[in-house]
Design a protein that fits this description.
The chain is mainly alpha-helical. Helix 3 crosses helix 4 (66-85). The protein has helices at 12-24, 29-43, 54-62, 66-85. The protein starts with 11 loop residues before the first helix and ends in a 13-residue tail after the last helix. Among the domains are: 21-50, no CATH class; 51-87, no CATH class. It is 58% helix and 0% strand.
Length: 98
């Protein structure tokens, strides 16, 4: 597949903060940008839900150790499941569900 060079400018701090995230997800930055642009075109809007695991998020955001992070993620999933069962969370599969 033929490619073109794509250059952009970002703040150094944003570049530094963002460099490790695609790697943690098994991607390089070029692949991530291609994925983002593809989703932008396909959805005709802002893309996607590729994120760190709950445990990694809690560890980074709240300074929890791995065991605390796993516990927090498990509690969050259990609460979401309970809320869905109780009808507090609605599954949306199309515009008619809004």
């Amino acid at each position: 597949m033929k490619t073109v060079q794509f250059r952009t400018r970002v703040e150094p701090s944003l570049k530094k903060k963002s460099d490790s995230i695609p790697r943690a997800l098994g991607l390089d930055m070029e692949t991530f940008v291609s994925m983002a642009l593809t989703q932008l075109v396909n959805r005709r809007g802002l893309p996607f839900a590729v994120t760190e695991s709950d445990e990694d998020y809690f560890s980074y955001e709240y300074g929890l150790n791995r065991n605390e992070s796993v516990g927090a993620g498990n509690r969050m999933r259990a609460a979401s499941k309970r809320d869905k069962t109780l009808g507090r969370i609605k599954t949306i599969s199309g515009p008619e569900d809004l």
